[in-house]
Amino acid sequence: MFRNALGKTLRFLGYTVQYGCIAHCAFEYLGGIVVCSGPSMEPTIQNSDVVFSENLSRHFYCIRKGDIVIVKSPNDPKSNICKRVIGLEGDKVCTSNPSDFLKSHSYVPKGHVWLEGDNLRNSTDSRCYGPVPYGLIRGRICFKIWPLNDFGFLRASPNGHRFLDD
């Protein structure tokens, strides 16, 4: 009796560890569901929108300008942020706010990206904390899941003029 119960318990623990490892790998390398909060990506992503984030792009260095990414916050490593990639390493980017009379520009250093929220007036982004190391990127947002009336792929940046080609 004791031996039978011990065998069942060990089998259960074995399956739990096995499926836990599979789930960890799926969420770490394939992707997952993310609830976005805050106004920085409005109107593209509203507060409490649910999106799907895939993680393969960051592993294969397939992040491009215009992609919306989930990133470990440079200011608070315990939280993630959602921003749009404006520049990749070597790109010239506008580092000033849209309301600034004099525009300043800089180049994104090697191994970094320049991130900005779509709501430029209400976003803490690379204009505040500078270029972000590529290694902080957690995933790329593919499409919106919730609300259902907005289900599908994300729209283009309302700030497309901030993408500089040089």
TrEMBL record:
Cell location: Mitochondrion inner membrane
One Pfam assignment: Peptidase_S26
Record's keyword annotation contains Mitochondrion: yes
GO biological process, one term: signal peptide processing
Active site: S40, K83
Gene Ontology cellular component list: mitochondrial inner membrane peptidase complex
Gene Ontology molecular function, alphabetical: serine-type endopeptidase activity
Enzyme Commission no: 3.4.21.-
Subunit structure, as described in the record: Heterodimer of 2 subunits, IMMPL1 and IMMPL2.
Name assigned to this protein: Mitochondrial inner membrane protease subunit
Species of provenance: Crypturellus soui
Lineage of producing organism: Eukaryota, Metazoa, Chordata, Craniata, Vertebrata
Gene name as annotated: Immp1l
